[in-house]
Amino acid sequence: MANFEIVLVDMAGNIGNGIGSGDQINVNAFPVADSLEVNGNVNPFINTMQPVLSWNFIDVGDAQTAYRVQINKGSSPDFSAPDHDTGKAVSADFEYTASIDQGDGIYYWRIKLWDNCDEDGAWSDGSAYFYLDTAVPVSAISIDLPKYYKNDYQFETKWGSYGFAIGKFNYPTGIAVDNNCCVYVVDCWLSRIQKFDSNGDFIITWGIAGTNAIEFDTPIGISVDSAGYVYVTDLGNNRIQKFDSNGSYITNWKAAGTDIVIDSAGSVYIISESEGEIQKFDSKGNFILKWENEFDYPFGLGIDINNSIYISDSGNQQIQKFDSKGNFFTKLGVGGNGTGQFDSPYDVAVAKNGWLYVTDCMKNRILLFKPF
Fold this sequence. Notes:
mainly beta, four-stranded antiparallel sheet, 0% helix, 46% strand
């Protein structure tokens, strides 16, 4: 083995004592956070707004003296303006109980640690997350995260065909999914709403042609809010009708547009096929913004629990996905008769588990896609 000597030089250029090959060198390593968990699981599905974040401290010969945790709600790890930041918290504890106040959705988090030399390590990679859904009972919680935030989908199944009996369709247009993953379909030419479970099994139907309550003239779009109320755009009667989840009539008001969705903050999105644009209003009807994206007969709107917006771009035989400000994410679909292909996709709905339901109106069927 060759001999060596390390010469130490300070900032002023002064040469210190050399370190030879027989000397011991002590180097302080930077601390690392490992084994990140939430409530004892990796990347879990939880229903508590006070999750316990935990980690292991790795730094041989040293001890943890402080940590800093950042948490941000969003569809990807972005900590440029985190919703929650502990700052440098002096503590030897390997866990932190957060208080979440941004509502249900996916939360990414990261952590950095300090050792007893007051050296701080690098941030963890930011890929740790948890999915919060306060409506889910404890017994239903799984450690597998629903992949609603993904931008890739694969065809899963379909149901429906042309006809007048229950479970069949005559030009299905609007579609919506409630918090129980029940699916509501506007059966346009039959002036009715059909309700199914997530597998396509029929539950209930309501509506006939007409101008009175629970009657429709060319119903097009449908939406379900977080409380389970159902909204139907009754185009020929130039109104929106509101029902409970069993089809009992509540009220109506004048409005134009082919579809409507409501986000978690109460903001309202309305799509106008004739104008080829999406408009966003606050809960009091004040205009916020609008956007276009080379649509060709955009009829339907969908929204997921992260407030991403899905648009059925019927003439282009595709579904387009945007954030709540109109920034483009991705698109899905092509025209054709093959598996998972579209023939005039009229509307799209997103369940809280991320599944996409699309009304393929010229084929009188519903297509289901799962994220992967």
